[in-house]
Design a protein that fits this description.
Blueprint lengths: L1 H9 L6 E5 L2 H14 L4 E5 L25
Length: 71
Amino acid sequence: FAMYYYLKELKGYNIRVIGLDLKEDVIEHCNELRTKYGYDRLDFYVGDIATYKDVDSVDMVVTLHACDTAT
């Protein structure tokens, strides 16, 4: 959310951000927050980056890895 806010809201870039996670509850919560804040170019899907095929090209990939105790 912070990256989207910075790039879209503060810098004014015309971006689309896709978030992936393997946990359905995490994706559901993120999509609720996206709707709450009106971030219409931010989408979250249950999926694995290794098999995700719904885009032709990307300009940037940002990953976050947290150990099991952090999630």
